[in-house]
Amino acid sequence: MEFFFQILFWGSLLLIFYIYIGYGFLVYLLVRRKKRTNREEISDSELPSLTVIIPAFNEAAVIGGKIRNTLSLRYPREKFRVLVITDGSIDGTEQIVRAFPQVDLLHGVERLGKAAAINRAMLETVSELVVLTDANTLLNEEALIELVQPFTDPAVGAVSGEKLVMSSEAGELSSEGEGLYWKYESFLKRNDARLYSIVGAAGELLALKTSLFTPLEPDTVLDDFVLSMRVCEAGYRVAYQPKARAVETGSFNLGEEQKRKIRIAAGGFQALYRLSKSWKYSNNPLLFFQFISHRVLRWVAAAPALIILGVSTVYLVVKGSGWVFDLAGLAQLIFYTLAVVGWLGARTNTKWPVVYIPYYFVFMHWAILAGLVKYLSGRTDARWEKASRIRIPVNPEPVEDSRE
Fold it and tell me: What does pTM read for this prediction?
């Protein structure tokens, strides 16, 4: 029995190491062996036509700033259309949009969710490219110009911008952890894109060829992940453009962040079930490797591995199996103690920088397990109540120092 628990200990430890460190390091080594190719920039006269689609449900507090930010982006006006869809909004969002004659509006009284809104907006889109962006995010001035550059490669079917999470003195400790998480994700996405393709774009800023769009199932929760992966399943790459930046703040408090993370996790399991082609090694071995390593293992295996590691460590420490397991037990005890302290700080809106990494790590995996329960119980709903976030100024430029 002791040998069995040693196998569980080392197996779970190696799996956690691979998911969070080993995969990133392996991809980093692989891309260093690849020769960089210089891409020609698209001149202004050759820029493709595009439509910026902004789904906005009850976004009266932010939609005016979002539209002003979008209209200020550098792109030829004759090739640049802004379409806002406000289906189901009851807070006056559509009236604010109507105050901008440069913007097209789609508004219906029935609220069917974001996926259905995107499907309806795409029926009104004839441009070469479509850019999806959230109402509560702001873009840097060069975002659109930079976002279209990778499309010079015919193998590129979609391009993801870089998501930045702004911390705030008014914000919760959860936003600090979220920002750090996205810095790490940015590092992985840069290397994933250089190796072959990113596996899951951030919906805050995503461009794709209009011809590659396939209607989403109306109950889709993670529309950005499904859209980008289906581009890959169609045989194209999803590129990453860190010079195109979407800025948002962290959740307003711990409760809001919890609600959002659980919903994302439930949507992740829903997406994994539906992306059948991505599971087939024979379709694209390299994409399969990235999909399994970066997404599937993190969502499906990481949380159970942490539990198995903890249980096996306790057993081996009690059995007196050796100093290695005693040291592992002490390290885990310290780590989870710091996570609890971080949780207490988040509940009292007190920031203790030393503890927000273990806190957010544990919090994220708890949300994954809660999301799995929610998905298996059939309680996923595309018409979710958005999490409240800290308000940010219209100009996103001062946050550049938060990038990796």
Answer: 0.84
